Amino acid sequence: MNGRVRRAVLPAVLAVLALLLAPTAAAAADPPAVKLSKSQAGTGGSITVTGSGWRSKALLMILICGQSVPSTGVTGGTNSCANADGRAVTTDAEGRFSRKLPVAEPPVPCPCVVHVATVTGTKAEADAIFQVAGHAVEPLPAEPTGGRLSVLTDTRLDGSGSLLTWFGAPPARTLVFTVGNVGTSPVKNPVFQVGTSHGVFAPEWEEQQWRGTIQPGRKARIELPVELAAGAHGDYTVSLKYGGKVMAEQPWGVGRPWGVTLFWVLVCLVVPAALFRVGMAVVDRVRPRRTGPSRRRGLRMPEVALRIPGLRPREEAKHAASAPTTLPWFTPDNDPGTAGRLSAPHDDSPTSPTDPTGPTTPTRKGST
Question: Between 20 and 30 A from 172 (CA), which of 53, 93, 133, 152?
């Protein structure tokens, strides 16, 4: 009985769980969406842009673009958008955002859209119809007939840096991709536009022509050179555009030129040391020097010389050189030549009057 109850209850529990998890799965599968607080506003006003279904903690860029509709996307790329008045926003943990956007006229006529696209990571974008009051409105440009190119493979950047790049030379790569002609006529010498952008800034486009002809239903491997400015470093994005449409984007992480940093560190160490050496050399040249004889006299051991009053320094030096030197233990007081005898010292006091051999002591006058 218990087994039958379990078998009956188990499907019901699974059905309830499926109903509970179905909205969550559907929400996860929903594409990014954008909603506007107003569908029309004039220049100088503002609107509130809200979105859902985006990647969590994703950095987004919000722009007002002309000559675009949600079905075809931004026809002219970001060049047809009011880039100066765009706003950046970061989604929350659930992939939602809300941001106020000032209304500005795009550089091309409407129809216009509010274009929201990711700045980094996996590419995602969404558009919402918007009308700029007072701005010109013109029909969308007709799509070119005949040959049409489509990117068949993912783009990649070939090449690597060199020692010169490490010291600040312009980083260079080769953008490689494969295109196919999905039109009915051949495409001869197609002109591509390659743009490089850093961070949230708009790409700087450069036209490059590929030499060759692509027949209908055929494909070709395209290689286009890409070069950045000298000393560039950080996260860049290389975009490819053909016929006014962005066909592919490729991230490019450029390393920092540490050789330039090392150079400036050496300059900060070597230049002060060189200036110090030059300054010491100048001080040694400018300071007063002693005369030759005095310097030589300072280097020799002092000599014992007799100084005679009245003599000049030079005559005094000559006299000291010609005077005989005496031994230190013979002085005028104990010179043997002055004593007149070599006997031991004895008492030279006068003898007494009674000594017949000694000299007599003189007596004073008037003594008895």
Answer: 152
Report pTM.
0.47
Q: What's the full length of the chain, in residues? A: 368
d(C-alpha 36, C-alpha 48), whole Å:
6
Compare 245 and 324 and report the one with higher pLDDT: 245
Which whole-number Å values give the CA distances from 28 to 25, 32, 94, 95, in the listed order?
Answer: 5, 10, 10, 10
178/152 Cα distance (integer angstroms): 6
Rounded distance between C-alpha atoms, residue 117 and residue 32, angstroms: 10
Spatial CB neighbours of 240, under 8 Å, sequence gap ≥ 6: 151, 155, 175, 177, 192, 193, 194, 195, 224, 246, 247, 248, 249, 250
- C-alpha closest to that of 63 among 84, 45, 46, 33: 84
CB 210 within 8 A of CB 194: no
pLDDT at 193 over 50: yes
Residue 116 pLDDT grade (very low, low, confident, very high; cuts 50, 70, 90) = very high
